[in-house]
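Hey L., structure's done. Input below.
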Amino acid sequence: METLLKAPQSLIEHLMESLHRANKDEFLFPDEIPRSEATSSVLFPLSEHCHDGQSGGEPCIVFNKRSARVRQAGDLCFPGGRISTPLDSYASRLVTLPFSPLGRWPHWDHWRRHRRPEAQRLALLLATALRESFEEMRLIPFAVRFLGPMPSQSLAMFGRLLYPMVVWIRQKFFLPNWEVEKVVHIPLRSFLTRDHYACYRVHFQTRGRNGLREKVQDFHCFRHFGDNEKEVLWGVTYRMVMVFLEIIFRFRAPEISSLPVVHGVLDERYLNGSVAS
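Output:
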């Protein structure tokens, strides 16, 4: 593990092969993906350019922090969103050309020959995630290296099904739009350190017949402490990261009962998306 973290090219090869082994016998992309309103695609970006002042050039995972103008404000997330047709349908053909992200992916020929219907949906989802990433943070689409897809994750609170696309990026600087407060780089090494994990005790209110009622629920979370940064990663994005860590490093977070407790509060604006722009 330590050798991989110090050798980006070896890490990239390990990532591609690990994702391929995990996916080769799985049916990842059902027929209804292009038509479903629940479908969203997200980019899962990795980079060797960490900006926390302590990590130098070591590998990191890149997140967006949601701005106060969108629901789930303040959460760390991956760039992405719903499919836009016919724009993404057209772009899905471009991402399969030679020297494009899928065209350069070593396993694309296998998918194209043996998993053709799924390959078309994979191209559509990748095109969607790349377009959304350009809109949200000005990530240059054709400068990414595609490493592989991951299993979908459900965001039940908002009725969404998220499809993560793992990529390696070399871009150092970004220009976030109004949806993004800032871009956050977290060293991959930190996710393999158990001391960074905690129990996130969330306090929120629900409406019932007798008015508002307070509820409390515990979630696994990851805490990041960088230069002038203190972030909590939880929810569906946390779950995607944990699936990734298990596939790549066979790493699992400690049992939640053994973790320190940190508190969070979700108000109605967070839950219903009524944040004023």
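The chain is about 30% helix and 30% strand. The chain has one domain: 2-272.

-- N.
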